[in-house]
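#onboarding

Welcome to the new folks! Below is a worked example of what a typical request in this channel looks like: someone posts a single protein sequence, and someone else replies with the predicted structure as tokens. Don't worry about understanding the tokens yet, we'll cover that in week two.

Example request:
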Amino acid sequence: MADKMEEEGGRSFAIALGGFQLVNLILYGVCVSYSAPLQGGSSGSAQAGTTATYGAFQDVHVMIFVGFGFLMTFLSKYGFTAVGINFVISALCIQWGMLLNGFWHEVHTNDYWTDIHLDLHALIEGDFAAATVAITFGALLGKVSPLQMIGIAFFELFFYSLNFYIGVLYLEAVDIGGSMFIHTFGAYFGLAVASALDGSFRSREGKTRRKTLEQITLTEDAAENHASSTKTSDTFAMIGTLFLWMFWPSFNGALAPPETQERVFINTVLALTGSCIGTFIWSQFKRRKLSMVDVQNATLAGGVAVGSAADLSIDPWAAILVGLVASAVSVWGYTVLQPWLAHNCHLHDTCGVHNLHGMPGIIGGISGAIAAASAGQSVYGNNIGLLYPARGITQDRSASEQGGYQALALVITLIIAIASGVLVGNIVSHPIFEPPAKKDFYSDHLYWEDVHDPSQSKPSDEFDPDRVEAGERKGVQESVI
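Example response:
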């Protein structure tokens, strides 16, 4: 399948991408328009809303394309695909995510024949959809083809938006920073897809037992060698970490009402500082020396874990404590749980999204349920309806009931993510999606020009005048210089 892809120049990816874009283009032409204040001119209220929201939107935008993209460049032979495919898939997910979010909103309001209206709020929700798929991509990094990622994005966002509809619009659970609906869903969906793909690969391998043990060993060794990182690739990945760490408060607070947004920023910053400090503590205690794997990832766990309760008065010390606990769980995941899952369950999580997004997301969901159950009128007064719409003046949901709905939303999220992930994993394992051979895992050479296959011998250093005239450097030129 890999040879076929190289021969055809990856045209199937371009065809699928173009077809997906054509579908989006038609749907946007038929079903989408600007929101009312943006039609036929801009009112003062619309301009004020833009001023207040655009900064947070741009911060989230940077996180998606720079933060997540560069965080995945730690694989030294997979940097082009990590940044490039994250770029194009995220752009596609913004379009598709806004359509699906608008569709489920119309289902909720029983208003099927009006346009889906776009504004900055919708754009931010589109970014959140892209973030969910980027998290899933992290679990599968290096083991799926770009064509498979198109299929995964197409199906995942349907289930993601369905889960969002059930949790936010139907159960009226509140998850201001996306601990449950973004991080937990994206992580466990990705792990379920990874498990399904691994089972499919093992099934195909079982049907081709004519391979000798030596051939299988060489294939596995090649894949393992490709998965290595270097000091340079790890440094590039730290660029992604730092962008994510700095802009995470905007991610958690982008859609918060003005009355609570400042509290979201404060709680998120404190949780992030706690997880940063905690990571350096736990990493050295556990490994004796600091690990870039821990620093690149666990330092961000506080931003995930505090998300569901970031808009509440949880007290500054509690926000720091959440960050410390999340970093400890994340480091434990990277040092103990992830190797155990890989060895005993054949569950390989390339970026460790279970440790950064999955478990911290569950911590966030649980802490959000506890915080909701203890959020009383005496603390928030009439503003309780801003935090929990179901507890507003027109509704009579109690604090304990809200906590129960929060917990139910977390359970439903896990069920939908895992079940749909297994389903989608089995779908995209079909040969039509061109899954890469194991020997080609974690390597750019199948998908990008002028990238050498690292499992083959180095290319000849023969002098090539045509390439010299084109300004391309050859190994012989570099040796002469």
